[in-house]
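Fold it.
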Amino acid sequence: MIKIAETAHEWALKNHPQPIGLAIDMTAGRGHDTLFLAGVAKRVVAFDIQVEAIRSTSALLQEHGFANTELIMDDHRRLAEYVHDPVDLAFYNLGYLPNGSKSIQTTAESTVSSLKTLLPLLSVGGAVWITCYPKHNNDEASAVLRFCQTLPSPLYDVLKYSVVNKELSPFLLSIERLI
């Protein structure tokens, strides 16, 4: 079975110029994307709205000895309050906290709003990787895809990676800033 989130890690390393200065995990969750980013970037900022996610991410980072990460318990749509430097790489893993409450999820509104804030901060050659879960929240997945389809092609390339023979399977979006 294809693991979309792990694919994002592999492709990000293959396609992103090194070194990576600032990376953002827009949805810290259990910390797996944050841990990946901490291993490849000089500085990482990770957002989540749940205490449980921040604690889980912090424990994972401590276990692996990373101290280059700032954890922020806030909605990712408020990115501009915390980040002012160019962003080289960003990850979203949408939906709900694994093994957490399914009633607390990312939303189309918040995610699209955060993308509108993030994209102008993206460095030339920088990329955003978004794992979407239509089975969990098709409204959000559809809204994010529609937003990405409106991005001006002279500024951004957008890739969609999906399993086409499984209805509502997760899919991966990659947004790369060209100029």
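The longest strand covers residues 122-132.
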